[in-house]
Amino acid sequence: MGSYLRPRTIEEAVAQLAAGPRILLAGGTDYYPARVGRPLDDDILDITAIPDLTGITDVGDHWRIGALTRWSDLGRADLPPAFDGLKAAARQVGGAQVQNAGTICGNVCNASPAADGMPNLLVLDASVELSAAGSVRTLPVGEFVTGNRATERRADELVTALLIPKVPDGARGSFLKLGTRQYLVISIAMVAVLLVPAADGSVAEARVAVGACSPVAQRLPALEAALRGCVLDAGLADIPDPSHMAPLNPIDDVRATAAYRLDAALTLLRRALREQGGGAA
Amino acid sequence: MSVTVSMTVNGKAVTGEVEPRTLLVQFLRDHLGLTGTHVGCDTSQCGACVVHIDGESVKSCTALAVQAEGTEVNTIEGLAKDGVLHPMQEAFRENHGLQCGFCTPGMVMSAIELVRGRPDISEKEIREGLEGNICRCTGYHNIVKSIKAGAAAMKG
User: Fold this and answer.
1) CATH architecture of B87-154
2) What digits encode the pLDDT tens for the residues A194-210?
3) Which residues of B touch A95 (CB under 8 A)?
4) Interface pTM, i.e. ipTM
5) B3-77: what fold?
């Protein structure tokens, strides 16, 4: 290893980052497996001893998810039903031990096209809080992640939290993913759906995102527009059609062909909408 | 460059001088001689290296020893008390929950966290909870049976 630092405060951490770039280490569930068979020789900034990065807090008009919030913390957290999709992702990622170590912020920063957190955070309109020495900025999560393994984080910045605006009462989220097995595999396709009901039983607002079918998970605005105003029942499953999938750009790889991915995403969307509309998934 | 790391392992305070890159599993096996914790895959998949940190199961092949500073670590060697097996170990023995035994320490450590407070855990919940532990001998049948029995025994 090059040098190893384990600051106790955010101020200390950003001062250390200002002195030069470092690998940021939290749960490590992506860090170590990417380095098997070669020495760990990076300069590391281990953020796991910073108490101010822990916890999920209600901050008036939004929720704040600290950078050290692990999947298992999220899975157990008392949050409104809009978070049900994110919580489902938290309980399905990697297996219990990975959930006890890996963080949702790390999932975002790792910027895998198949990151389970991303579609859920997109439908929650989440932002990323980036702290540097003397400054803090926030970016919508869809702008923060710019491509496969690429983010807008500058080398002197630390992601300190995810910020999620409050969602109207009655909003509910859900998440479905497809892989060759349920756990410990990289997903072929995944969908997150968040519906806000109107008083008359129709859909007041629909937010839909698909992961693992483009370099960065994408919202589907045309499908969202098509769902708005529809009766919120199992008939919602009939709304998605292939034209709504235009923002996606899946690849052919060892896990699936592009055509299969698109078909799987469409099927998952229909299942998620049927289930949200009260039908059997 | 080496750093001093201190933690409690199986109830005993331990201190070691390690390079920061030292993984927790290397510290346990190579520095403390606790070789019951196994390394199967190095990539957070197989679960042979599962230990408890402050009561929660984690994969010790994917944590630095220095990240466990100040914590309570429990390994398979810490389960038996005064020569009497932990109820979960006893359940694995009674139900033949192993064949080659390589995955067993991780299976037992994962099982103990999984069933805590759930004496009536269902087979489905056990199978889901074991997703992070891979066994290539048993087909899991007797492991699931063992964990069900262990869960019931831990209640008493």
Assistant:
1) Orthogonal Bundle (1.10)
2) 999 999 999 999 999 99
3) 47, 131-133
4) 0.91
5) Ubiquitin-like (UB roll) (3.10.20)
